[in-house]
Design a protein that fits this description.
The complex is a heterotrimer of chains A (99), B (489) and C (484).
Chain A: H1 5-14, H2 21-38, E1 62-63, H3 73-77, E2 92-95
Helix pairs in contact in A: 1-2
Chain B: H1 9-17, H2 23-36, E1 43-46, H3 48-63, E2 74-78, H4 105-112, E3 116-121, H5 160-167, E4 173-177, H6 184-190, E5 193-196, E6 217-221, H7 224-234, E7 264-268, H8 278-293, E8 297-301, H9 309-324, H10 342-353, H11 356-369, H12 374-395, E9 401-405, H13 421-425, H14 432-437, E10 441-448, E11 454-460, H15 466-480
Parallel strand pairs in B: 2-3, 2-4, 7-8, 7-9
Antiparallel strand pairs in B: 1-3, 4-6, 5-6, 5-10, 9-11, 10-11
Chain C: E1 2-4, E2 9-21, E3 58-59, H1 60-72, E4 76-77, E5 80-81, E6 84-87, E7 97-100, E8 107-115, E9 121-133, E10 137-139, E11 146-150, E12 157-163, H2 170-187, E13 199-209, E14 219-224, H3 227-246, E15 255-259, E16 264-267, E17 280-281, E18 288-289, H4 292-300, H5 306-317, H6 321-328, H7 331-341, H8 347-365, H9 376-387, H10 393-406, H11 410-417, H12 425-438, H13 440-447, H14 454-464, H15 471-482
Parallel strand pairs in C: 14-15
Antiparallel strand pairs in C: 1-2, 2-12, 2-13, 4-8, 5-18, 6-7, 6-17, 8-9, 9-12, 10-11, 13-14, 15-16
The structure holds magnesium ion and zinc ion.
Amino acid sequence: MSLDKATVARIATLARIKVADADLDRMAGELQTIMSWIEQLNEVDTKGVEPMTSAVEVTLPQREDVVNDGGYADRILANAREPVMQGEGGFFTVPKVVE
Amino acid sequence: MAALTDLTIAEAREGLRKKSFSAKELARAHVAAIEKARSLNAFITETPERALADAEASDARLAKGEARPLEGIPLAIKDLFCTNGILTTAASHILDGFKPPYESTVTANLWNAGAVLLGKTNLDEFAMGSSNMTSYYGPVKNPWRRPGDNRPLVPGGSSGGSAAAVAARVAMGATGTDTGGSIRQPAGFCGIVGLKPTYGRCSRWGIVAFASSLDQAGPMTRSVRDAAIMLRAMAGHDPKDSTSVPRPVPDYEKALTGEVRGLKFGIPKEYRIDGMAPEIEKLWQQGIAWMKTAGAEPVEISLPHTKYALPAYYIIAPAEASSNLARYDGVRFGLRVPGNSLDEMYENTRAEGFGAEVRRRVLIGTYVLSAGYYDAYYLKAQRVRALIARDFTEAYKKCDVILTPTAPSGAFAIGEKADDPIAMYLNDVFTVTVNLSGLPGISVPAGLTDDGLPLGLQLIGRAFDEETLFRAAGVLESAAKFTAKPPGV
Amino acid sequence: MLIEGKTGTWEMVIGLEVHAQVISEAKLFSGAPTAFGAEPNTQVSYVDAAFPGMLPVINRKCVEQAVRTGLGINGRINEVSVFDRKNYFYADLPAGYQISQYTRPIVSNGKLTIELEDGSTKDIGITRLHMEQDAGKSLHDQHATKTYVDLNRAGVALMEIVSEPDIRSPEEAGAYLRKLRSILRYLGTCDGNMEEGSMRCDANVSVRKQGSREFGTRCEIKNVNSVRFVMQAIEYEARRQVELIEDGGTVVQETRLFDSGRGVTRSMRSKEHAHDYRYFPDPDLLPLVLDPNWVSEIRVSMPELPDAKKTRFMRDFKLSAKDAGILVAEKENAAFFEEVAKGRKDPKLAANWVVGELFGMLNREGKDIQQSPVSAKSLAGLLDLIENNTISGRIAKDVFALMVETGKDAATIVEEKGLKQVTDTGAIEAAVDKVIAENAAKVSDYRSGKQAIFGWFVGQVMKATQGKANPALVNELLKKKLAG
Ligand SMILES: [Mg+2]
Ligand SMILES: [Zn+2]
């Protein structure tokens, strides 16, 4: 399975990381090297083996339905870029999205 | 009496209780040491005022005889832990100016135990690296040097700043995080003790996530006892972390009995990898001898899937990271690079905000999760992970702990291996299996390379059996009598 | 419903995806409140805003609501279900992923029975119900060059309920949505308010030649905010596809928006660039394992649902399927009816009055049952007066009008207005005799066989008694006396 320029461009878009066309080839090379090193996993027979998604054996803990958080828009917005601070509305902002 | 900065945490605890010196004096000594050691670039943020304020509060408690377990002990915190109101960067450009309005559970536990904050230490960007060369804030220098060779060496990574700070005697202890070896490998490179607890032992809440199913916080100290003291304060169940395990935290110091007679320690044959430096093999044999002399019994064990741990790790960790790092989008915190559309803003911000290694791993993670590859890569890796965990389960039918080298080499020069990701990844070949199976592991400084650089031995324990791990590590420590110090310290 | 095209008869194939906002105090994975209409970003925790190091912890109530709903739609409750991350970038999705359930939902294989106009019923299969987080809100109209983002809704629990492509007409789609909404409201797991967006519907529509087995290419119509619009959107979209195909075009799989103003669907270009959600199990969460005992506790605490109630109403109150159906659609209406009908010898009368007079009145007044000016108790009072012949059904209608107007109870009004029915035979007999005496000609007509004018005599007597005479008695006496 080879990681070509087009694939790198596609995953870069999925990951929202700008990659200049000039860099696509180098990137593809780098990633391909790593992926072919990873291919050795195919030597392992994993028939009938359940995928391991977590190292802990406890089951999912559940919280009670109690409101004990929120109510601090000022702190939520304090680190934001170009926010509309509380009082003027209290919003995060992004470049206009056209739908 | 030795310089204040030379004391272990246990010794300082004594001295403070005996009023041989004050917490403030202790803090001042370390603040001064940090300034002198700036060339190491171990810290991203120093917090001297906070340190002195904390120390003052500790002196007040000490005076009232209300000392807590870490009262007045100056610690450094890996800059991956969110600290309330203090810049937290993960060594990434993308978190520019981020001041969390909250405190991570582990650091909160430390402050509640009376510890004093010296500052936030440097690391590989988002903890992705084994050399500390991927930090946006520049590489950390290992306080150790090859005799007659001034080329700066890497401290290891990703917790390189923490390791360097503790080794250079500018912090009594430090927190690290370990996703594939990021506590144990730098501990080995810097000649200190580093422990990765069982997954679920320490809360991950408030720690910038790299790979959620592998990340675990742990102590980095100059003695096994210090690690025991620190871990007891750091650990504990946290209802805010669904993967944190509700088990009582034992008094780990009590485990340091020096007694290992009859203890079975496993020697995995698969850890003799080709190309491993003879001095590593020599040290390993030395470790086996020490344990035997102490009355422990070596057992040959097999961990057949060891070879596949790294490739599996380099699917699982990037996959989780590609998703964990999606929140760095220039909207709610950190860097924003403008763009004409929402997607352009995202792409510009993330291209400029993430360094080369982080971009590489996010792309790999995105790739292995993407349509058509998920089964071939991600599921395959999770199945291999299950087999690796099974290897350990089998092994622990024959032994109580496992003894291995920490890393296949000692510290290397800054710049070496930089151009070869896979060579770099191989640093973690002995440590990564432990993360994949969620087990506890500790690196103990055990000797020096032929050119005088520290080497560590790793002990791996059963899940939630940190006590046996400490017991064996204590024995290894006293046998190894590692007293060497970095030049000029 | 079939579409007659130029080339033949077409059948529509419809599947509905409903997003139902769970009724709970706190969000699915955080302790922030869910209440509607608060100031922007005031109901947001660091978890909801995906700050570094924040972790999800699931809300037990939301799980219970999903299980309750699963039982309500006759689904299989899966003892183990898994939360996955659905990865995509959008302004209102702070983490860059939505926590959802992909391969292992909490509920599968449900079904729901719908009633159609012609009285027939049909089962619609429900593939799955899974839990997931709601997104925040993007406001595009606040600024010339910026979109504003409010995360108050981000992280609120949703149930995504996905039907099988069993639906064949807008009518069936409407019936399915109304039935589902009715069940959610009975269960108290979602308020079902489509206008406020607490219940949202996406419709997958395709067409195929009648009798064909394979499916055509489908289009997904997003977020249509009323049952009526869903029905309109489906009909428009199906006809669009038929025309397109018959004019030699092909349907492209895409997301379309319904323009309720113009009653048309249009392609939603912004959503078109291909998605690859890269689902994988959320490593911050462990598999959700349900305790079977807890599930059976929920099972026994289930309220009577519309279907069961309808059957009971038909059995115990001898109601028609139609009336029973109308009465159980909203549980408040059903409760009102039961209070009026209980212990009554003629519950059918109660049904007629609730469905006819009461609902008619509420419609005119634009009120729902909770705001009814006539309580169940006082309507029962009115019906008592009819049943014990204190007033006739005709007078009762006037009394009801006065009850709505004055809020007084029936008995009082009947007293004040002296509307009591005359049942004293003497008085009625006098009136009858008077009518007979004054109309000798008509009487002889009747006696010579013109029985048809009997009604006219009744009318005269009622007039003479201002309608208060008991009709039965009037008939009886007239018959006797006219027979001579
Ligand atoms: Mg959907
Ligand atoms: Zn959904």
